[in-house]
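Appendix B, example 12.
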Amino acid sequence: MPSKLQAPRGTYDVLPEQAAPRRALEQVARRVLEGAGYERVETPVFEATELFARGVGASTDIVQKEMYTFKDAGDRSLTLRPEGTAPICRAYMQHGMQVRSQPVKLWYLSQFFRYERAQAGRFRQFWQVGAEAIGSDDPAVDAECIALLWTILTELGVGGIELRLGSLGTPETRASYREELTAYLRAHEEQLSPEVVARIDLNPLRAFDADHPGTKQVMAGAPVLMDALAPEDLEHFEEVRGRLDAAGIGYRLDPTLVRGLDYYSRTLFEFTSDVLGAQSAVGGGGRYDGLMEQLGGTHTPACGWAAGVERMLLSAEHRPEPHAVCDLYVAGTGVPAFALAVEARRAGLNVQLELAGRSRKGQRKQASRLRAAHVALVEDDGSITVEDVVNGETEAVPGATAAVAHILKGRHL
């Protein structure tokens, strides 16, 4: 009887038939990002809880509601990483990357964990591809980050994408605006959701994210931060826009754009897909010039983004890779067959070995299913006959070494 055990809610199994589009996505991301000078990095699955409390923000839903946090045997508070930027900043500081040529450009493809309502394309254990450029405040960094994600999404064939673009200004600008917004929210407190009211003093900007009807009505008339940008913030933003315009990357200005992380400053962006319906976000990010200081380091400007692998796959044209090439199928179950398979693999051939004890007829059917280019019929006495499936030629060869040489010669003709 089938087991009643199932994967926990909000998680999923990647089955063999689902692996090809994921591999294709990874190949596109690697080619685009490494072609632009970004190097692969991976951080631990769990980190000190303090990293996310300080970096992501104590007022965020991620820290307040969604983190998987536990105590280890040494009574240390650890958290399964809910996002990638804070861990990469920690690694940047810990490993002295500030002495490298700046900006340090890194990318990752990793698993993350958040306890949120499971739904299509949104899981509690999920994968993200992301990129971080650390060590430069040049607007060109912002524009490049946006352009790289745009390139990946378009190459994957993500349907109905729209780029939303905004600016949060600097912390000083935001502090002044925050006072104005807080006063506005207090004046309309009775129309807001209890959750928004409870968070007014912690992070009033998150009210723009609310789905509550009364809150949405109030926020439609709220003052917006982009109207209060300081001249230097506005100049930075206009330079980012100018580069996107020159590259032909369309966008919609969204003065109410807010993401669920507190570390952002200046440029903020999000890509959505109308294929996904209400939960339309595919990926996004922005500049986070103050995060290193929040984590105990020195001022280090940076910009980055992350995109959900599952959400990209849901909204993209699935492009599975071609069937894996099988150069040689070894039809035989004895020691000589095994020795041939090992030697052929050492020579760089893609080899599949008979492992199910099939009859000769069954072995030929299996070779056909695998689309093998060559079939080696290996007898227990070590005699080998190599069949070239493409041209129909058959040749007896005196051993494994000769069989491999015969196949390699045919590949190079």
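The mean pLDDT is 90. Residues 385 and 396 are 4 Å apart (CA to CA).
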